[in-house]
Design a protein that fits this description.
alpha/beta, Nucleotidyltransferase, domain 5, 3-stranded mixed beta sheet, 11 helices, 8 strands
Length: 329
């Protein structure tokens, strides 16, 4: 029923007061409709031991080879469906419902963390180092990192424990910390799960093969690998890799002006200094506009800090205001 039809129908039958659709509709008499006896015959045939494990696509040809025609394949399916007998058979795993989209919202520091593991090349061909990075989604601060010679959930558990201790994450918090990751073996290991339960940290996972569900870690690793001072040659040792990652983390947290947080450093946003810094920038721009108003056709640049950061925002958040950020930049 179209919208115009519905509005006209409500006007015509508003006086009745019962709200019932009084339209007669179209009565169709289907002459070739299966009789009740034919429907029962189809049902009994499909439930015979000979055909109980066969689909209608195989039952109908067998009956035709015997000179019998009870109904079409589609009629068989229609009758079986009406009696609730259309189900998957066999030992194959039935289709699974898609995993729900993870929607995480961070309105302050230490509410949502994201972490991942990446490879670091070594001078020995085929041997890699593993870089562990944990980032605060709201402030973009690297809260923990480590370089190891293997991918081990115990190393990840110790890393998160040290980060929680450094950031003073208590199990008695009103809002528990959420640790988001992809579906790697180390991320889903029982060792890490038990440690997070002890710390009072909740887990969240990306959908399988959907890298966009973990954009902040992916963006951070791109920044790591495409830094101008990233070594052009593989790392000679683990100590050399640790020295470089330590210098990178210090630069990223304290000197890198992140475009996604109005060009303040992650440390300034994490510690709360960014609000005053952006307020001062707004005053400078307003004073410049007053000195030369003809140069400003519109309002000055918005320096307001994004208040909310999303991983997969809901549809109502897809048109962000200047104070809402939902993508990694």
């Amino acid at each position: 029923m179209g919208l115009t039809t519905l509005q006209r129908w409500r006007r015509q039958f508003a006086g009745d007061g019962d709200g019932v659709d009084h339209r007669k509709g179209s009565f169709r008499h289907v002459a070739h409709r299966l009789s009740e006896e034919e429907r029962q015959r189809i049902l009994l045939t499909c439930n015979e031991p000979e055909f109980a494990a066969l689909p209608p696509g195989q039952i109908v040809p067998v009956l035709a080879d015997r000179g019998l025609y009870i109904g079409s394949e589609r009629s068989f399916y229609r009758v079986l469906h009406a009696h609730g007998q259309v189900h998957r058979r066999g030992r194959a795993r039935p289709p699974q419902d898609p995993r729900p989209v993870p929607r995480l919202k961070a309105a302050g520091p230490n509410e949502v963390w994201s972490w991942d593991i990446s490879y670091l090349p070594t001078t020995v061909r085929g041997i890699w180092l593993y870089l562990y990075l944990v980032i605060d989604v709201w402030s973009r601060k690297v809260v923990a990192w480590d370089v190891a010679e293997r991918e081990d959930p115990a190393i990840a558990a110790d890393l998160v424990s040290r980060a929680c201790l450094r950031e003073k994450i208590s199990k008695r918090r009103r809002q528990p910390l959420i640790l988001h990751a992809d579906n790697g073996n180390a991320m889903r290991a029982a060792t890490l799960e038990s440690r997070l339960e002890e710390l009072g940290v909740l887990r969240s996972f990306s959908r399988p093969r959907v890298s966009n569900d973990n954009p902040y870690s992916e963006s951070l690793f791109r920044t790591v690998k495409y830094r101008p001072d990233y070594p052009r040659r593989p790392f000679a040792s683990k100590d050399e890799a640790c020295q470089w990652v330590a210098s990178f983390a210090d630069w990223y947290n304290h000197r890198h002006r992140h475009s996604g947080i109005k060009f303040v450093t992650p440390h300034q946003r994490h510690s709360g200094q960014a609000v005053e810094i952006c307020r001062h920038r707004a005053v400078v721009y307003e004073q410049a506009r007053k000195r030369n108003p003809r140069r400003w056709s519109r309002s000055t640049r918005c320096w307001r800090q994004p208040e909310v950061v999303w991983i997969n925002p809901p549809l109502t958040e897809l048109d962000p205001s200047p104070a809402t950020l939902w993508m990694a930049v």
